[in-house]
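INFO batch 0412 | record 1 of 1 | parsing
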Amino acid sequence: MESLWHTPVTAAQIKGWTRRYPLLSNVVRYVERGWPNVQPTEPSMSPFWTRRGEFSTHEGCILWGSRVVVPLAGHHQLLQELHSGHQGMAKMKSLVHSFFWWPKLDADIEAVVNVSKLEECHHQHHCTNGVGRAVHGLESTWITQVLLRTRCFWC
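INFO prediction complete | emitting tokens
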């Protein structure tokens, strides 16, 4: 955990977010006091339930093996910072999977990388105010559709 000071989020932030996020505060309680005999009914608990024997806690943070479980509040900040090196999706996934985990992590990484590709392509092709432009196979993603309906960031 001490090595988290090299990352865009700190252990103290993760601890605070974990404490304030009801789902993860329940996971901390289960890890420290024991999991219930029956799976909790909340669908968001399912990814944690399937790994329930693999979690531990350290200073208020949840670990899955050697990976830190990052609360929702830190997802965007962490992915944006890690993606700023523009290393591509495979390298980014490898890096993130080495240190962090949360449910649907791969989908979040793919969304960040795809939006970045869209913004780069959109800017390089001197957009037409962001309306109606198809961008290299991304035209069917929901985030692409939202961005294409808005004005270009650079216009």
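INFO post-check: Residues 125 and 135 are 10 Å apart (CA to CA).
INFO record closed
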